[in-house]
Amino acid sequence: MSILHTVNKSPFERSNLDSCLKHANQGDSVLLLEDAVVAAIAGTAFAARLTDAAKMVKLCVLGADLKARGLDPAKVIDGVAVVDYAAFVDMAAANNAVHAWL
Amino acid sequence: MEEDFEGGIVKKFMYVNRKAPYGTVYALEVLEMVLISAAFDQDVHVAFLDDGIYQIKKGQDTKELGHKNFSPTYRALEGYDIEKLYVEQESLDERGLTEADLLVPVEVISRAEMAKLMGEMDVILTA
Amino acid sequence: MAYSVSGKSIEADEEGYLVDINQWNEELADLIAKDEGITMSPEHWEVVNFLREYYAEYQIAPAVRVLTKAIAKKMGPEKGSNKYLYELFPYGPGKQACKIAGLPKPTGCV
């Protein structure tokens, strides 16, 4: 059993990502989209948390949302994969459930 | 997933409450969703974590707010055969609350147990 | 829509459920029942009063299944049955009895 967690709020504004990472199990996937993509960039105050989480869960960020916000996909934290919508669909299908942390 | 005696599929549902009541409409909406879901004979779990535990804090009084106090409705869940209520210990601790502050019987579990339980669900709805 | 009782107008939604539960009184209940084609008997009142107590305690109108079970628990299996309740309220104890009791439409009732 594995879950695809999706988070769409910035960790600097809401606790959604923090709570999500605390409840994700080994082997789960976490996809950052919409405002949550800011967490994927290297050098932020949240970066260490994410680097740590990448050891346990598969971390992904939606490229379209990075680009829309002027964030460079080349500057994401090591261990975070930049994905497109097709990959998002594949991940949803590959996991037992999708958990949207609203 | 398991087949029940009528041949329908019973899935494990979890409704996760993470927001305090009244500031936004989420808590009430989830509660109504839970009540409606009871009609479908599914294996329903309701979890309270983060600020969601304020939804079942004792002593809510909304008179001055001019807003309906819907906290008594959580006590009706038992009559709807929804008896699997879980509260996260760490969320209680962070807010200086204990099980005695809650208005409905719940099972208090650790964050690790909550994460494990989530991993066993077929459907999770969080708000 | 609105009901008129003793020269006073009491507001209801388009289906006849009261907008403000606090405006309910027994005279109004009789009037709503008449609109539903029901003449209130002691047995009807027993259910209506039970619903009002349920609402006072839980702040919701119960689903029919829950109402039936709760009545069975309090008044015994004969009254806590679909047959008994539908005889009293032919168009559904949830919808009709709740309306007469001044409650909102039951949650989960479509």
TrEMBL record, chain A:
GO terms for cellular component: sulfurtransferase complex. It comes from the Bacteria. One of its GO terms (biological process) is tRNA wobble position uridine thiolation. It comes from Magnetospirillum moscoviense. InterPro entries: DsrEFH-like, Sulphur_relay_TusB/DsrH. This is Sulfur relay protein TusB.
TrEMBL record, chain B:
It holds the Pfam family DsrE. InterPro entries: DsrEFH-like (IPR027396), Sulphur_relay_DsrE/F-like (IPR003787), Sulphur_relay_TusC/DsrF (IPR017462). SUPFAM superfamilies: DsrEFH-like. PANTHER family: PROTEIN TUSC. Belongs to the DsrF/TusC family. NCBIfam families: PRK00211.1, sulf_tusC_dsrF. This is Sulfur oxidoreductase. The lineage of its organism: Bacteria, Pseudomonadati, Pseudomonadota, Alphaproteobacteria, Rhodospirillales.
From TrEMBL, chain C:
InterPro entries: DsrC-like_C, DsrC-like_dom_sf, DsrC-like_N, DsrC/TusE. One of its GO terms (molecular function) is sulfur carrier activity. Signal peptide: none annotated. It is found in: Cytoplasm. One of its GO terms (biological process) is tRNA wobble position uridine thiolation. GO terms for cellular component: cytoplasm. Pfam families: DsrC. The active site is at residue 109. Its main location: cytoplasm. Keywords: Cytoplasm, Transferase. It comes from the Bacteria. Belongs to the DsrC/TusE family. NCBIfam families: dsrC_tusE_dsvC. This is Sulfur relay protein TusE. It comes from Magnetospirillum moscoviense.
